[in-house]
Write a structure and sequence with these properties.
five-stranded mixed beta sheet, Putative pre-16S rRNA nuclease, alpha/beta, about 140 residues, YqgF/RNaseH-like_dom, nuclease activity, hydrolase, YqgF
Length: about 140
Amino acid sequence: MRILGLDVGSKTVGVALSDEFGWTAQGLETIKIDEEKNEFGFGRLGALIKEYGVESVVIGLPKNMNGTIGPRAEASQRYAAEVERLFSIPTVLWDERLSTMAAERVLLEADVSRKKRKKVIDKMAATMILQGYLDSKK
C-alpha cells in the first residue's frame, strides 16, 4: 500500500512516496504549479498516483504557530478536496508546522549549496511530512 506525501505551495508541490510497507518516505519530485493561473499539477499527480498504485495521499497542513488555520492552510484544504474529487482517493491533512524549516536545516547541515537547496527543499519537506505521518501509524 503506497502513500503519497505532498508539500503544497503557491509555485510548487513537493512529492514524496512511501515504500510498499508504509515504513519509509522517499522524495520523488517537485511539480511546478501556478496558483494565480489555476494550474495545480493535477495531471502529473494523477499519473504518479496511477504509476505507483497510490492508495492515499497525505497533504501538509501549514497551521499558524498558535494552531489556527491561515490562508496557506486553507489552500491545502482546497487542494486535498480536489485530490479526493478528481482521483477518488482518501486524503489526510497532516500538521506540517516547521517542516520546510527542518528540511532547510538538514540541507544546511549537509552543506548543500543554496542553488541545490532551492531545487530539493519542497521534495524534502514532503518527505518529512510523509515520514511524520508514517511514524505516527507505527
